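To make the argument concrete, we let one protein speak, a sequence paired with a row of C-alpha cells, as a model reads it:
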Amino acid sequence: MPIKIPDQLPALSVLANENIFVMSEHRAINQEIRPMQVAILNLMPNKIEAEIQILRMLSNTPLQINIEFVRLNLNVSKNTPKEHLDSFYCLFDEIKHKHYDGLIVTGAPLGQIDYEHVSYWDKITEVFDWAQSNVTSTMYSCWAAHAALYHFFGINRDLRQEKLSGVYHHRTRDPMEPLTRGFDEDFNVPHSRYGEVQKSVYDQQPQLNILADSDLAGVYLVATKDKKHVFVTGHPEYDANTLLDEYQRDVAASVNSSIPVNYFESDNVNINPKNSWRSHGCLLFSNWLNYYVYQETPYLLEQD
C-alpha cells in the first residue's frame, strides 16, 4: 500500500521516478480503509530534501499512510520557499486538537546550542508533551532525540569537540525486539552530530531499552518500554550524497571538519559515495509503523 501525500508536493514526482508507490490525495479518497495518520514535524532547514528522504523511508510498508507536515511557527525559512510552506504545512496550533497514530520529529541544526537557548524550546516541549496523550508512538531523530531525552528524563548530552560524521557499523542488542526485526547483525548508519549520551547514562533509566549501538558512534537506537517513544541518534534516511553536501558546506564555511568516516572510498572525496544503509533505514521505519504504531493504535483515534 502507498503513502498518501498532497497532489502537488515535489516529493510525489521524485519518488514516482524512483518506482516508489505513492498515492495522490485525489486517488486516495476512494480507498475504503482506515489509513494510518502520521504527522511529520520538520525542523530541517531544507524541508523539501528532508520530506523526500523521510517519505522514501515510509514507503516500504503494506499500510496506507496519510501524511501531514507540521511546523512550529510562521517564521521565514532561508532554505525553503514560503509558497511551499504555505501550501503543504500546517501550524502545530492548528492541529493540536487532533490525534495521530504516529509522529516523526526530525533533527535540526542546533547541535551546539543549549536547549533552553533554542528560540522555539518552549514550543517544541509543548509538542513533546502533547504527543504523550495525542500520538500512539513518536520517533525522534538526531537533535530531536537528544532534546526529547533531556525533556522527559533529564538526560543531558555531552558535546564533542569535533562533529561525529560518517557511516558507522552497528549491532542490535535484542534478537526478540520487534523494532529491529530483520536487521542484519552488523549494519551501517550515517551520523552527523556533536551531541552524545553515554551508554551508562541510558542504563540508569529503567524505562529505556538500548536496541542498537556502535563501538565508534555509541548508542544509536533507544525506545521506551511502552513503545511510545523511539530515539534515533543517526540519520538512516540520508541520501548517498547528504554527508558529502554537509562536508562541502562545512569546508566552504571554514568549519574544522574532518572527512566523514567510512564514507568515501579510500577517503577520496572525488569518488562519489555509495549508499550502504538504505535497506536498514526502510526496515526501521516499516517496523516502527507496524509494531509500534499499527499494532498499538486504537481503530478510532479519538479513543484513549
In short: The mean pLDDT is 90. The domain at 3-155+198-237+281-294 is CATH 3.40.50.880 (Rossmann fold). The radius of gyration is 18 Å. The longest helix spans residues 278-294.
